[in-house]
Structure formats: C-alpha cells, structure tokens
Design a protein that fits this description.
UDP N-Acetylglucosamine Acyltransferase, domain 1, 8-stranded mixed beta sheet, 6-stranded parallel beta sheet, 7% helix, globular, binds coenzyme A
C-alpha cells in the first residue's frame, strides 16, 4: 500500500472501501477490523496483534495512536430490551445502534482494554491494560480499571516535541 502502510497477514479488514489510512501505519497479525460506517486512521499509528473492532459504527484514530494487543473497540451494539441480539438473527428483528469511537492524537489503548460505543479518548490519554472504558477520557490523563477511572495526569510537552521530530523525518 502507498504511504508506508503495512498490514501483516493474517489480518481481516471487512468492507475495505470504508477505510482511510494516513502515513506510517502498521496493523499487526490476527486483527479483525470491521469497516462499519467508516474507519479513519491517522499517521504513525500501530494497531497491534489480535485487536478487534466491531459493532458497525465508525472509528476515528488520530496521529501517533497505539492500540495494543487484544484490545476491543466496540463501535455499536444491539438494543437489549426489545430486539433480538446478534448477526445470526433476522436484521428486521434486531435494533442496532451504530455509534462511534474516537481516539485522539497521542492516545494509547493498552493491552486487552475494551472501549465501549460513543466514547472519545482525549488527546494524549492512556487507557491502562485490561481496562473497560465506558465514558469519555479527558485529554492527557491515564485511566485504569473496570469501569476505567482517573489514575493520574500524563505530561504533554515532551510528547508533542517528539512528534514534531517524527514528522521532520518523513
Ligand atoms: C496504566 C499504566 C500506564 C500505569 O503505569 P505506571 O504509572 O507505571 O503505574 P504503576 O505500575 O506505578 O502502578 C501504580 C498502581 O496502579 C496499579 N495499576 C497499574 N496499571 C494498572 C492497570 N492496567 N489496571 C489496574 N491497576 C493498575 C498498580 O497495581 C499500582 O497499584 P498500587 O499503587 O496499589 O500498588 C500501566 O500500568 C499500563 O497499564 N501499561 C500498559 C502496558 C501495556 O499494555 N504495554 C503494551 C506492550 S506492547
């Protein structure tokens, strides 16, 4: 692919025409990413092995974002009270809310985290390993746990400086 986009097999991108890639993107092996209503991936993004993106909504990934191994990003989900659940049920008997997930620049979804539909991970924010994120995460903060809660702030200035250097090199 152009722009130094590397996708290691076996990885499955479903509805490939829904994907837009920036520069310097790596998608590792065994990912399963559903294009849903659109997947936009920025520059210097690594999606590590066994990451699963499903739910049929949209995913917007900024620059310098990392999604570590085994994380799940759920961009939409079934209504639980008045409809059947799951792709094996007839579509007209299901109610699926196609939502979104936004991962802003410099954010990191660490190993095995789960991000629920409708969540925005703020610029520079970190979701600790194994966390379940149900609400927006403020910029330059670190959250951990299930449900994910504020742990501490993350320093910003050095990261921005390093990102400028990375762009100078391409
Ligand atoms: C969230 C994270 C960035 C915090 O790192 P840190 O600031 O160095 O945190 P510490 O290791 O000092 O831990 C501080 C406390 O938080 C707890 N903690 C750390 N990470 C946690 C997590 N993901 N979930 C729950 N608790 C966690 C520790 O047990 C410790 O608790 P204590 O004070 O009661 O002993 C880090 O723990 C993490 O999850 N990193 C992701 C690692 C990863 O996925 N790497 C990918 C490799 S490719």
């Amino acid at each position: 692919m152009p722009n130094n986009v590397t996708i290691f097999e076996p990885t499955t991108l479903i509805d490939k025409d829904k994907f837009k890639f920036g520069k310097n993107v790596i998608i590792s092996e065994y990912c399963h990413i559903y294009g849903g209503t659109g997947v936009t991936i920025g520059d210097f993004v690594h999606i590590s092995a066994n990451v699963c993106v499903g739910g049929g909504g949209s995913l917007t990934v900024g620059n310098f974002v990392n999604i570590s191994a085994g994380s799940h990003l759920i961009t939409g989900t079934d209504s639980i009270n008045d409809a059947l659940i799951g792709a094996a049920s007839p579509l007209d008997l299901r109610k699926v809310d196609r939502s979104f997930i936004i991962l802003k620049d410099y954010s990191w979804i660490a190993t095995g985290a789960i991000v629920m539909p409708g969540v925005t991970i703020g610029e520079g924010a970190i979701v600790g390993a194994g966390s379940v994120v149900t609400k927006d995460v403020p910029p330059w903060t670190i959250v951990i746990g299930n449900p994910a809660r504020y742990m501490k702030d993350r320093p910003k200035d050095k990261i921005i400086e390093l990102a400028r250097e990375a762009y100078r090199r391409i």
